[in-house]
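Exercise 7.
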Amino acid sequence: MSVRQFVQTLPQSSYGKNDKKWFPSWLSRYATPLFEKDSKLPVTVELAVAFSRS
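Solution. The predicted structure, written as tokens, is:
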């Protein structure tokens, strides 16, 4: 799923108010230095750990 697709489906999700507020920001920040491949955001343990540490 691309960042754009995620943000579009978020309002209809069952996530809490704060999650709906902050997830797009966090995801956009995560995606900034990366390139979406085939309209998908690469997610690996290494990338997630590096992002969390930043």
